[in-house]
Amino acid sequence: MKKYILILFSFFTLNSFAQFTTVDLFNTPVNIGYGQNGYYYKDVTGYFNQFIGTWQYQNGTTTYTLQFKKQTFLKSYPHVNKTYQKDYLIGALKVVKNGVLIYNDLPALNQTFAEAVNYKIFSTGRVENFNDCYMCTYPNQRLHLWYYEPNNDNYAFEDLGFMIHTYTQNGVVKLRMDFLDQTSPSDFTNFKDSNSPPTKTSLFMDFGIFDFVKVP
């Protein structure tokens, strides 16, 4: 009985995927707009694959651990008769400072959420290279990701994001994170949810440029 159930499940799963027309997420034809009904915006070339896995940065007593995985999300908007699929790179962060665990969102990657925005780190798109794109080898190599921290009641920490790209140095594959300060001092006077000063006055992740090394 279980065998027949599995066959039926596989049939319906394959059938549902077959309803979508695959296009390249990073090279979509000009006549096809973003989020069109019936399309699957797929990482055709495997661009996300270079980031998948666990990366670690250590400087003195501070250790950052990043994990990334690629996931496909189904987006459905019945009120406008629109359903499509899209690949995302989703991520999670762990922070240890002075031997103390400050923050650990890694378990979130084991959960299945309906939307990429339910994860604290998720991709938005590739961006153009500039002088700070260290050892970049082809145009639009860097990936921009949104970055959120839980329980944020401070406008200064809204809409944060960082750039990442990989490179090889002395035979070692590294991931460079560019997380520059995007806050404005005036934002600290605009309280998010009330007239009281925000309780969150610092981030778990420090601003800066960090070179992560891939770990098993």
UniProtKB/TrEMBL annotation:
Record flagged with keyword Signal: yes
UniProt xrefs under InterPro entries: DUF6705
Residues spanning the signal sequence: 1-18
Domain named DUF6705: residues: 1-156
Record carries keyword Signal: yes
UniProt keyword list: Signal
Protein name from the UniProt record: DUF6705 domain-containing protein
